[in-house]
Amino acid sequence: MSSKTTVITPDQLAAQFAFCDQIRGFWYEQNITPTAYVETYGCQQNEADSEKLRGYLTQAGYAIVREAEGADVVILNTCAIREHAEQRVFGNLGALTHTKRRHSRQKIFLCGCMAGETKVSDRVYKSFPYVDGVFSTHHLWQFPEILWNVLTRKKRQFYIEDEPGSIAEGIPQVRDSRLKAWVSIMYGCNNFCTYCIVPYVRGRERSRKMADILAECRSLVENGCKEITLLGQNVNSYGKDLDENVDFSDLLAQIASIEGDFLIRFMTSHPRDASKKLFDTMAKHPKIAKQLHLPFQSGSSRVLKAMNRHYDRETYLEKVRYAKSVMPDLVLTSDVIVGFPGETEEEFEETISLIEAVHYDALFTFIFSPRVGTPAARMEDPTPKEEKNRRFDRLCAVQNQISERIHEGYIGKVFRCLVDGTDKDLLTARTEGGRLVRFEGDPGLIGSFQNIRITGATTWSLTGTLEN
């Protein structure tokens, strides 16, 4: 795998736009308005990638639809983090044989992180002959070329070479929301946690230039965006590969100086690189949400070392203590893996004790899933599945109690929330800390910040009333 970053030139991107024009003409000559469906699996970065795919498709004349049935193009943008996610993709890919049989001109593509795995592309090539194209994240910027080749050459296209990671500015995006936006600030990962496939399928870390990020954020705010979430596999590494002398805290401060009423969020933040400067910057700027997703993965220092996480239990706790000291109202969430190879019962109890010490607002919990090609997949793993399930259930029960108690503490308090949608007859909103609130109100409030008094709480969400 190459560590070199390739900057896609304006001429290279212009060539892709030319393919879009050719595709549009291809359908125009047949007097057809083609349709496309993009299904996304996995993380927010995949969501952001899908927005670019929809942008290209729209520029090529496709109308975006909400189901695969009858669509002229179907794209599955995939995740490779867990085995369950991969099996679900293969199941859905298999089901597409029926939609293609009913709609003969349908073209099916598989992309995303799974497409970067040789075992996946080999399986698709041999077992899914009706899939027309496979392309890895490194080749997303070439999608119009790939689509054009499928349409005109009538041959399957596999763009899966181990290319250097790239930065392509100017790809059009069709965003899911005018209120909220994902903004990728960097791509790839250099950490090589022993359980994680991401560095192998998304490449090494590469940062966008600050000027390009700021221009995108300004445009979003000027067009009414109220919440910007900055994305990266490890946002705290931002800038290390740039000639500019900037880091993630500097970038946050610059975005926070943009005029307008909006919030800034970010994910994911690796504990190794989370610094006091970062926490101080968050505390200083009102536009930066006092919300932090800081994955700890395990409460055992030995397990953390086996995971290649580059911090220990006490270092993590020190960072949390400092963050909470400068941001008393900080909403803290995290990821945790249960059943990492070799984890003992005592080490699992260390994870439980860390959770009880920190009091997370919420956790994203996972049972270890071996990924072929990672060091952890080759580690001895003597713990039975039943025991891992027991530990997982206990961990969830402990965290659910904590979440419920924290949410009960919201009752009677007033929070400034962004009203962002509906749920049946109720409006939905998010607190600055990202907590979901349901309340009665006029749909005309969607897109505005409102003060809401919390009247009820469950483990997962809040209810409230508008405060005049």
Could you describe the 3D structure shown?
This protein folds into four domains: 5-166, 3-Layer(aba) Sandwich (Rossmann fold); 177-289, Transcription Regulator spoIIAA, CATH 3.30.750.210; 296-408, Transcription Regulator spoIIAA (2-Layer Sandwich), CATH 3.30.750; 414-466, Beta Barrel (OB fold (Dihydrolipoamide Acetyltransferase, E2P)), CATH 2.40.50. The protein has a six-stranded parallel beta sheet, sandwiched between helices. Strands 17-18-19-21-20 form a five-stranded mixed barrel. It starts with a strand and ends with a strand. The mean pLDDT is 95. It has 468 residues and is of the alpha/beta class. It has 13 helices and 21 strands.
Give a brief description.
With 468 residues, this protein is an alpha/beta fold. It has 13 helices and 21 strands.
Question: Span between N and C termini?
Answer: 57 Å
Judged by helices, strands and strand pairing, the structural class is: alpha/beta
Mean pLDDT: 95
Radius of gyration over alpha carbons? Answer: 23 Å
The biggest sheet amounts to: 6 strands, parallel
CATH class of the largest domain reads: Alpha Beta
Domain unit count: 4
The percent range for helix content is 25-40%
Global shape: globular
Largest beta sheet: what is the strand line-up?
Answer: 3-2-4-5-6-7
CATH superfamily of the largest domain: Methylthiotransferase, N-terminal domain
The appropriate CATH architecture of the largest domain is 3-Layer(aba) Sandwich
Output the number of helix runs: 13
How many strands appear in the DSSP assignment? 21
CATH topology of the largest domain: Rossmann fold
Low-pLDDT runs of 5+ residues are: none
Hey, roughly how much beta strand do the residues contain? 15-25%
